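Record type: ASSEMBLY
Status: queued
Input:
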Amino acid sequence: MANSVQGPKGTRDFYPQEMAFQQYIFDAWHAACRKWGFEQYEGPMFEHLEVYTQKSGGEIEKQLYAFEDKAGRKIALRPELTPTLARMVAAGGTNLKRPVRWYSISRLFRYEKMQKGRLREFIQLNMDILGMDGAAADAELIAASIDMMKTFGFTHEDFKVRISSRMLLEELFLQIGVDRDQLKPLYALLDKKNKIGNEAFTGELSGIITDSEICVKITDLFNCKTIAEIEKTGGNTDLNSLNQLKKLFSLLGDYGFSDYAVFDIGIVRGLAYYTGTVFELFDVKGDLRAIAGGGRYDNLVKLYGGPQTPAVGFAAGDVVLAELLKSKKITPPYPPRSDVFIISIDEGAYESTIRTARILRENNISCEFSLKENQNIGKQLKLANDARSRFALFIGGDEAKQGKMRLKNLVDGKEELVEADEIASALILVHGINLHCTARSCT
Amino acid sequence: MANSVQGPKGTRDFYPQEMAFQQYIFDAWHAACRKWGFEQYEGPMFEHLEVYTQKSGGEIEKQLYAFEDKAGRKIALRPELTPTLARMVAAGGTNLKRPVRWYSISRLFRYEKMQKGRLREFIQLNMDILGMDGAAADAELIAASIDMMKTFGFTHEDFKVRISSRMLLEELFLQIGVDRDQLKPLYALLDKKNKIGNEAFTGELSGIITDSEICVKITDLFNCKTIAEIEKTGGNTDLNSLNQLKKLFSLLGDYGFSDYAVFDIGIVRGLAYYTGTVFELFDVKGDLRAIAGGGRYDNLVKLYGGPQTPAVGFAAGDVVLAELLKSKKITPPYPPRSDVFIISIDEGAYESTIRTARILRENNISCEFSLKENQNIGKQLKLANDARSRFALFIGGDEAKQGKMRLKNLVDGKEELVEADEIASALILVHGINLHCTARSCT
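Status: finished
Output:
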């Protein structure tokens, strides 16, 4: 029995204060997406297993919450949203107007080893532009990811976007003699280069590519810190991918985000489906996992039976972002549960308490009151404080005989008398109370 | 391959227009909850299986998406939120201040036969008050459920709340000679009375209770249309449950909701855990399944190892509500994807397009532009219409030489010239454009 008080490993319970913090993140995400002209979509919390294995191979199943439903269908809780997005765009076919500019704030599930910044159930913002190829769409999307972070108050002193290109890697690798069928394992190895250390990297590299001269060239390439250094490594540098990448950085300058964008050949991204630009957002201190990551995936919609559709997108998780916010001491206040707590002075006046609440609520004023009749005033005030209410409204007593109510500001302690039949307008007009201030989107 | 374009049976894909409709429902729910002084919580999307079997018995497993995770833990996707709520309140113990006034808007999953108004993945609003017993808390919660419906524009001509009491049933049944251990199967039978027809009901009833005289009394009781008729059936009517129920109806009158509240002895609720007041919201036409349902469950928090905690709550599903909204032709407009679509007149002016977007976005104005350089004006205008943008902002051309931009209202077709360096303030001050108008909470 006792263990059932805890939720499953890797999941979270969001009590109201924690939920307010989550909601603060979600609201900023929504606002950033709307500002950039993206609209929201959602999909099922689980998909047919093949939606994932088809895209990523059978290996992916190890990371999935996968099971059979009662009709024997193989099902998996979604580990990422991009397959659902690609499936939906494929199903929409040519009826969906291009470009598709969509975002989603969605729960995802991965059966993974628990680590700092990594849970088994988490929430991601996904932003994608489908139906457009070229550096302009890549720049717009990367710029949106930067601006999303700026919404929280982060600057280029807090985070950078590290950018590379799968296409560039492919062109460079083929040029130095790597075989096309060595590319996939090479990407997988390069993606974990920084995690496994130089020695293990060199060992695994020689397992993929036997020609040691090529291995040296790969290592040299991966020591390049800038595009200019790559151009100096010799070989043909009039590559389409390189020109596209230069254009991307130039466009990010036009967006005003040069201080945020860094070339990093080490950004490879683990997923097999990327076809062009790849990027990751990291905190400058480098203490945390990637804040966000994404890239161009031009073949995925077609893989799900849709028309050939160029696409670029990114995902940002809530867990790392929350850690970064907390480390920067950016935390929203815990908002009031109600704006007004009605306190009855008279005994046996429960009916008039309800009637007062009714008037306030009919005017969209958030309020509550003790659900215990004839409670003493001290206890009612304690309830008001527990609810973090902004005002206590005392009804009854001598004031009532004069047609008035006593309004106490619980933040600064100031009190005033208000005409009973003008209480709603006094709260709205004089004190600026209205539903918009307690509505989720404004807290 | 082709079948993977569809999501799993009983789930939904929410394309942006459908998502806007969902969001309209969620926003109204959030607003209603805040107005009544409830705060939001959330839990994991799945729980240990025993969280459900413990409460409802092994039978429940038939309706669950249940599976084992890779460590052999028995897990189930949540079919309702109340067990998670009770688990969280139990875990919070006495640290959580009473009353707990919580709401949640959450996805739920039931492996059930598909029917009108019933899907396998759906979304529910849950509102609960914990830590308070008595008719006052019941009335506050039922009143909140009524007001939630009023938020959408529904009136007492559209829906009613049908109210009964498990406690009343228990007191009446024991009085006419039903054994205590017959109560549970009797509730389960009564809950499906209207679905199975009179004949099947009588048959199953005699299976539970052999004394035909008692069966007649039960049938007589269930023919009572009002509390007054119950009082006339003979027997002691000075019952605590009856007095509480009368008080509840009286309080609902104080809330101004007498026109909505109806006594209905036939409301039993299937779930075993209800201990007092039970209620369901139905459309007046009776075409649909219940819009919402709930009641008092005073023993559930204790069942999960917490302190004895009286509780009352309800859940309302999105599927039936959406059907009712559509049948009443209450549908929100499909909001613009962006407020302003920037159209470049000059060739090779992509940089200035980005710069204009940057100014608007820095002023929290939602905007976008074609991601294809040097596109002709007609095509750019088509994109603006596809995005349902409210304004087209033409930049470049002769106007640019005079330091101006042409702003076209795409709703009424009116055009005007605006000083280029005042474009943001013109949009905000003259045209009332700002992020709040496209933010999710205001659409």
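Annotation: The first strand of chain B starts at residue 39 and ends at 40.
Annotation: Confidence is low (pLDDT under 50) at residues 436-443 of chain B.
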